[in-house]
Structures are given as C-alpha cells and as structure tokens.
Design a protein that fits this description.
Layout: E1 35-40, E2 46-49, E3 62-66, E4 68-70, E5 74-78, E6 84-92, E7 97-103, E8 121-124, E9 128-135, E10 142-148, H1 153-160, E11 185-188, H2 200-209, E12 212-219, E13 234-238, H3 240-251, E14 256-259, H4 261-269, E15 280-284, E16 299-302, H5 311-319, H6 321-333, E17 344-348
Parallel strand pairs: 1-17, 3-12, 3-14, 4-11, 14-16
Antiparallel strand pairs: 1-2, 5-6, 6-7, 7-10, 8-9, 9-10, 12-13, 13-15, 16-17
Amino acid sequence: MTMLAATGVLDFELPPEREAHEPPEVRGLGRDDVRLLVSRGLDEPVHTRFHELPRFLDPGDLVVVNTSGTIPAALDARLPDGTDVELHLSSRMPASLWAVELRRPALPASRPWWGAAAGISLSLPGDGQADVLARYPGSARLWVAALRLIAPVVDYLSQHGRPIRYRHVERDWPLDAYQTVYVTEPGSAEMPSAGRAFSPEIVTALVARGVAVTPLLLHTGVSSLEEGEAPYAEWYRVPKDTAVRVNGTRAAGGRVVAVGTTVVRALESAVTPDGTVWPSEGWTELVVTPERGVQVVGGLLTGWHEPRASHLLLLEAVAGRPPLEAAYRAALDEGYLWHEFGDMHLILPASASP
C-alpha cells in the first residue's frame, strides 16, 4: 500500500472490502470484540482485540469519553418542485436554528449533491417544515434552516427521524446501534463512534486496573465534509470534575487518553496557554492540526478515517506523520475495517507499556 501524499492530508486508496457495512454484532462479534491496532511511534504495531484495551494503559492514566448521544437526524423531505430529498440535521445553532445538509440518496456516491437555495421551504413528515435561510458560513454544502415542527425537536425526531447513514451502510439500523454504552444527553447528528466498542465490562476492567474514566460532552455534526473543508463550530462542555482530573493526571505523570477526535477538540478548546484545562462550555471552532499540535492529549483511541479526511490532520497532530502512515499501511495490509462499525486504533507514545 502506497501513501499518495508526502505532504498535506494523508491520502491512500481504500478498497471497498475494507468498509464495514453493518454493526459487528451482525458479524457475530460483541461490541468489544472488534480488532484493535495499537501504534506506539514507529514501533512495530500490535494487533489485538478491543477487549484487551486495559492492558495497554497504565495505572494513573485517564480515559476521557464523550457522552453525547446520537439523535435520529435524517428526515424525508420534499422540495417545492416535488423532488424527494433527505434532510440531515447537523448542529443546533443559537436562536433555535439548525445547520442542515440536503442529499439525494438516489445519486451515486461519486456525485454528491447539496442543492438548495435560500428562501425555499421543505415539506417534512408530520406537517413539519424547514425554511432554508442562508448558506452556512464557510461551507458549500451546509445551510442554515429554521424548523417549524408540531412537537419539540427531540420528540419529533423520535417519531419521524432515523439515524444518518451513508452508502457504505447498506440498510437502516435502529438508533441503539449508533449509541455508546455511556450516553447521557442526546445531541449528536452522528455517533461519536470511537466509543462504540466500549462495554460495561471494559469500563470495569479499566477502573480495576487503576485507569480512571471521566466524561465531557461535544455534540458532533455530520461528518461528510468536502475535501479541503475544515470542521465547523460544535457545542461542547468540559465539566469541572473532568478538568480537575485531567490536570491532576498530567501533574502526576499519567497520560490523558482521548476517546475520539471529538474529545480531543473539546479538551484542546478548554486549555489555556500554560497547559491548564479549565471547566468551560460553548461553541468551539478550534481545528487541531499538526502545526497547532496538542497540549493536553497524550493518547488517542479512534476509528479508521477516510482518505483526505480533515480528521487525519488531528490524528497527525497526536501521532506524527511517519507513525500515522505506518499505522494506516499496517491496517490496510492486515484487513482492518473502516467507518463507524469498523475496527479501532489506539495511538500511544513510543515509550508506552507494556
């Protein structure tokens, strides 16, 4: 496998057989039985299963999870000319507005379609309506819309919505398939999927080993970013207890291991120039890149990201470019599965145990 770009975002060819089309439970696995590649700098990667995660972390480490829950954010919609489309709610904005995305499911994957126009109104199920107001700032595919619904949005979506899915997932799955075991508050358009493989048994094993687990919240929007499009604003909250634990862990020499890119973004949004994390909440526009680097995060548990995805820059900020290339080469050579129902990647420093 050849990496196609020496500079810029990591680029490679992802064969179709490397895409996970259904939850691992359908493949006869438990959530925590998916494969796990452990990369530690340029050391030889370790190939194992996710239920072995605790043995790669040390007593005194801190695992930070995102407890945001997935909402059924995909709705059938109809344009004024009668064309059927799919409306994806991405992020709730101030003043009860939403960032939304329109898709034409019937089009092939090679022809994405974001068609809309300011001033049109879309018909939604249950006598709902979405009024398209303007383009979302800085995006060619997202729009700002006002929803007119007969019920609160969470109740409305529970009746009329379904989880967002893309073409690599060949059928609809229930919302439970897109939730982590530690969810506390709904709000993410798509599952913070790095945490999907966790089971209650894994959390118990981590705590028994002396590895603490602490929460934060970041409501993630749609992940179908166009090439070259940076992540946009998302709402997050770092609680006081979590800030205290992160600072205490680092002071004691432990590692702060983020479960997912959402956790990295939230933590790095709450850090001051001297490296102290403070409790905070609000909208973050932070984009973590190799040039910016990370101040708090010492390890990252993540899935496998598509070629040229903007999240790969965040991974590079944590891992470094040569180690990241080596890990992706190994994952492709060894048949790891991509996307939200796929396998996992643990990035640790080269000096990590065991």
